[in-house]
Amino acid sequence: MAYEADLGNGQTMYLEQQGEQTSIRVHGGGQSQGSGFHTGQWKAQPRLLKVGQELVLELQGASQMYYGLQNGQLHSLDSAPSLDGAEEVALKDVPDGSDKGAMKPMEPMKGMEPMKPMEPMKKMD
Known about the structure:
The strands form two sheets. A five-stranded antiparallel β-sheet has the order 4-3-2-1-10, with no helix packed on it. Strands 8-7-6-5-9 form a five-stranded antiparallel β-sheet, with no helix packed on it. By secondary structure, it is an all-beta fold. A hairpin with a 2-residue loop joins β1 (2-8) and β2. The protein has strands spanning 2-8, 11-18, 21-28, 31-38, 47-51, 54-60, 64-70, 73-77, 87-89, 92-94. It starts with a strand and ends in a 31-residue tail after the last strand. It is built from no helices and ten strands. It has one domain (2-90).
């Protein structure tokens, strides 16, 4: 299962369940930040909520987990935040592995050309 959300300001969040792991990546401004968490299998669809200036990701895996996202920085929350007045942000269902912002593997480097042999040293007088 994978989801994508438009966070505004040119930022996108990509969320994917990979076995017992949850991968979360935020892309924007030519940069990407990602984290992986052991969450267990999701028991419900994740929810992304806007609470004031912060976004809160709610995951129901082995336990109820919350992650905060502010200024493109992702962090785990120790306890459930107050969700009073929270506004739900739409998560779009996307195919697994469809993270458009993921870095592509580097192409192999070309080998170096061999060095020219050194000229013999001149005899000193």
